[in-house]
Amino acid sequence: MKSLLVSNDPNIKDMVLNTGLNDKFSFEILDEITNPIEIISSVCSEKPGLLIADDDYISPNSLDILRSIKKLCKNTSIIFITSNDSLELGRQISPLGIVYYGIKPFSKQDFHEILKAV
Questions:
Q1: Contact assessment for residue 26 and residue 3, using Cβ atoms and an 8 Å cutoff
Q2: Lowest-pLDDT range, 14-28, 54-68, 72-86?
Q3: pLDDT digits (tens, 9 = 90+) for 27-45
Q4: 32: CB partners within 8 A, 6+ apart
Q5: Strands 2-6 and 50-54, how do they pair?
Q6: Nearest to 101 by CA among 109, 93, 92, 110
Q7: Under DSSP, is residue 100 helix (H, G, I), strand (E, B) or coil?
Q8: Is-contact 117 77, C-beta < 8 A?
Q9: Are 96 and 70 in contact (CB under 8 A)?
Q10: Which helix or strand (DSSP H or E) is residue 43 part of?
Q11: Terminal Cα distance for the chain, rounded
C-alpha cells in the first residue's frame, strides 16, 4: 500500500522506516513543506492509500488540511497522531473519518499493530 507520512518527528519517522512491514507498505515522508496548500497538493498528487498526519507538524491547520484531503482523496485512510490530549481536538477531528487517532508517545509495537489493523 502506498503510504505517506506528514511529520518531522524523528521518533515517528524512525517507526515508519523500521516497521518491518515493507512488503505491505511503501512509505514516503513529507517533512519539508509547511504551507497547508502545498501539503494538501502533495498528498493529493501522491494519492496514498494511507496517510499518517502528525498534528504537531501541521498544526494549527490540522483540521482544515484533513478536511480538504478527505474531500479530495476519498479513498485515503488517515491515521492522525498528536501530542495534544485535549478532548476538543478529538471532537473536531473524529468526524472526518479518521481510522486511528493516536496520542503521543506510543510504542513501536503499538504503531505496528495500528498499521496491521489498517
A1: yes
A2: 14-28
A3: 899 999 989 999 999 999 9
A4: 8
A5: parallel
A6: 93
A7: strand
A8: no
A9: yes
A10: helix 36-46
A11: 10
Integer Cα distance of 18 and 71 in angstroms: 31
Mean pLDDT of 40-53: 94
How many other CB atoms are there within 10 angstroms of residue 32's CB atom?
Answer: 8
Sequence-distant (6+) residues with CB within 8 A of 99 are 77, 78, 79, 118
Stated pTM of the model = 0.91
Residue with cell string 497538493: 41
Cell 518531522 found at: 8
Match 504537531 to its residue by C-alpha cell: 56
CB 1 within 8 A of CB 26: yes
* Nearest CA among 79, 83, 78, 80 for reference residue 104: 83
What are the angstrom distances between the C-alpha of 25 and each of 4, 16, 35, 37, 95?
A: 10, 9, 26, 26, 26
Locate 25 and state its grid cell.
Answer: 507498505
E strand or H helix at 58, and its extent? Answer: helix 55-58
CA distance 115 to 50: 9
**The cell 498526519 sits on which residue?**
53
